[in-house]
Amino acid sequence: MRSHLQYGEVINLIMENLNHLKDFLVGYWHMDVESTESGLKDVFKEMDKDAIQKMVLLIDRFLGSTDIDEDKIKFIEYCTDVYYPDMEPIQWLKHIREKLYDYVVRH
């Protein structure tokens, strides 16, 4: 018999996922990072394929959530110290997700 998650457990899972995403963004796109690409290079050096694959899933959940885009933008901007050239923050995160996904597929 499958057990059902209680409301508090669901909230805890959501918060845990957001914290993992926040830690990822804060850790790789801070003011000492020269560019989006240099942050990605660090990710590929420091994280293994499984961890990158999990991050792709977290980003997918975040981008696919029912939260309004304004809240997503605020979250991304809060967690990063980067300039988004020719992109809005959501498009920037989609770009990061695609690069991570491409890496997982190739390795």
Describe the structure.
- By secondary structure, this protein is mainly alpha-helical.
- The protein has one domain (7-106).
- The chain is 73% helix and 0% strand.
- It has 5 helices and no strands.
- Helix 3 (49-64) runs antiparallel to helix 5.
- The longest helix has 22 residues, at 7-28.
- It is globular, with a radius of gyration of 15 Å.
- The N and C termini lie far apart (38 Å).
- The model has no long low-confidence stretch (mean pLDDT 88).
Offer a concise description of the structure:
The chain has 107 residues and is mainly α. Helix content is 73%, strand content 0%. It has one domain (7-106).
Total DSSP E strands: 0
Percent in strands: under 5%
What can be said about the biggest beta sheet? none
Residue windows where pLDDT falls under 50 for at least 5 positions: none
Oligomer class? single chain
Order of helices and strands: HHHHH
Categorize the overall geometry. globular
Give the % helix. Answer: over 70%
Rg for CA atoms:
15 Å
| Whole-number mean pLDDT | 88
- Counting H and I runs of at least 4 residues, what is the number of helices? 5
The helix-and-strand class reads mainly alpha
Q: Estimate nothing, just give the exact number of structural domains.
A: 1
